[in-house]
Amino acid sequence: MASGGTAHGPERDAVPLRLIEAPGLAPSPHAPDPRSLLGPLLMPRSIGSPTLLVFDSGLGGLTVYREVARARPDARFVYAADDALFPYGALAEPVLIARVVSLMERLTDAYAPDLVVIACNTASTIVLPSLRARLPLPFVGTVPAIKPACAASRSKRVSVLGTKATVEREYTRALIREYAAGCAVTLVGSPRLAALAEAALAGEPVTDAAIAAEIAPCFVADGAARTDTIVLACTHYPLLLDRLARLAPWPVAFIDPAPAIARRVVELIGKPGRHDGATARALFTSGRPPSAALVATLGRYGLSEIVAPERFDSSEVSA
Predict the structure, then answer these.
(1) Are 121 and 144 in contact (CB under 8 A)?
(2) pTM of the model
């Protein structure tokens, strides 16, 4: 991550840690194709000043939005957080599919985006096929960066830190079987880290002890070898990257999928053109007004306009 601020990124001090950007993942006939989540295999087309919709269950997608905004500063952005049903990992799959498809139909009708980024591992692995079948838009999803993590690891000890829903999903385990490349992979399903990231971003107190307890199982020492690479398999986790690095019992490389997602967006809609003062707005499906601290944080990300939509009642969508 860059240490300086941009129009779409918060100011932050440089942090002495290794952050590996996940490269593009090649398809395989024997395992789930990560690129099928990153986006359809279309010929690139150039769109000037596109409208881009970034969607997540909460605030974790801001880590993806930040990278996409740096790649396409000319775009008009809508960041949509389905905070009414956060976290998604607690929902049954039919409920989640119905919910996200319904919301996406309403959001695309309202904002007519040229491309949609699903900045959520859970929604990407479960809902993307239904979204692509229903809506004639390019969708870019989020996939656990297991292949680049195993390729980068020197100790061949890699941990995948995600929500419990992500690490328990067969899709994640299939990626490990195909791409682990001789690595010992530890799956760590954190029950609280995403919520802690949300709280910290909203200005609520989050103790070091609480974060340390969530990441402790990632650090495995096996004789002379120990974990040297951790996949951040939830878009919320890079929000806490500085603290994750400081609280780590030894130095590791953290892999953030956001730069790879931004590159995929550019592949699909082209490089930026003239920057004519693009807008960036955020909306929250609960209709709850964000705290003053959160408004300030969103402003540092370049999201200066907060939309107050009519409440998206979760009862509208049932299993």
Answers:
(1) yes
(2) 0.81
